[in-house]
Amino acid sequence: MALKVLIIGAGSAGPILALYLKRAGHEPFVYDVYDPINAANSGNPFFFGDIGGAVSYHPNGQRVLNELGIGEAACAAAYPMSNAKFCKIDGTVLADIPFPEDKAPRSYNALRSDLQFLVGKACTENKVKIFVNKKLVSISETDDSVTATFADGSSATGDILVGADGTHSKVRNILFGDSSKSTFTGFMANVGVCKLGKGVGENGEDLFDQGPFNIYVDRFKKHHITVSRASETMLSWTVAQLQSVPEELATSNTYRPHSDLPKQQRRLAVMVEEWGVPRYFIDLVRNSTRITEYGVFEAPELESFHKGRCVLIGDAAHAMRPDLGQGMNVSFEDAGCLGLLLAEFPDDFCKAFKLYDEMRVKRTQLVAATAKKVSKLDVHDSQVGAFFANMIVRVFIGFFGKIFGLYDAVGTYEFKAEVEKVVAAERAKQTVKK
């Protein structure tokens, strides 16, 4: 039986799931609130445009892309992570963790826009239908269907509905109420992108990176910076600080770049110079080609990711802090797991949803909790606490992390093997019952 699947959200997880469903013979239809670049031009990939900064995809996320046949292209457009440096705000290195180069798949940094373009291209090639300017208003169910109604007065009806509409998910809010809304962490961030090379700066200065992935932190003043090499020629940075701002301001961002780029460049360059950052980073900020501001949010834990004919994936299910670089990766895991389960049980989506819950709820709670612990390590109310946190990074991450592989349990997850294990157990139960 081919299921007609309504997918709300065309960010990361939604189109990935649509590709899995298309491969399994189902009929996915994707709806997004935005009107991205090229969306109205037939033959062009669905593309949000040059927005956002860098993302990291690790072995767990890479396996999902490989399974769809787009992993090689994604790696070619990215930059391999050979190591990650943890530093004080002035550039003093506390820990330098190497990433194994002899294991496949490896970890990579990429521009979000580059990766999204490749996924959109795959959707176009596989004739996945994506509709834009579709702001979800309500969801209604009958015994045999589910209907999504949009702000423009249109509606769509299918067999099941998937909420892939991100951190501030309308689907999650409809299914589980106001208590399921994401909460503001207190961190406001700016992400920027700039071109690297000799003499490419506005005043002819050379712009080079200091490694594939660097983190600079002032734990007492609550300042946090990341710098990611995203390709051979491009670099992305993020500046975040814990500050008191009205939550409505933090939620008002539409993740579009600042319209007055020079003004934001000057403001941020002056700010980070006062923080005492390395000079090269100030040059990166002053020469960025786009800067986007956003608030950092996290979703409360849910006991289940599905209700009735609806199910959540990605940030809609478990928006988490970015401190592990795993948000997109576990979203890909969600899409891969749900896609494979619906391929295994095309006539019983209820069973697929149940098994999806068994696989994904505890797994994503573990990753979110780990990311939160790492985030809290970066914030201390005393100089003494900040000093000991730096020592923890230097000793336990810098030394033990190299030996034991601190994040292996998170980043090496094999989604397909886990699905096969769960499906085999379910088949065995069915055999016993017969």
From TrEMBL:
Gene3D superfamilies: FAD/NAD(P)-binding domain. Residues 4-174, 302-345 form the FAD-binding domain. It comes from the Eukaryota. It holds the Pfam family FAD_binding_3. GO terms for molecular function: FAD binding; monooxygenase activity. Keywords: FAD, Flavoprotein, Monooxygenase, Oxidoreductase. Belongs to the paxM FAD-dependent monooxygenase family. PANTHER family: MONOOXYGENASE, PUTATIVE (AFU_ORTHOLOGUE AFUA_6G14510)-RELATED. This is FAD-binding domain-containing protein.
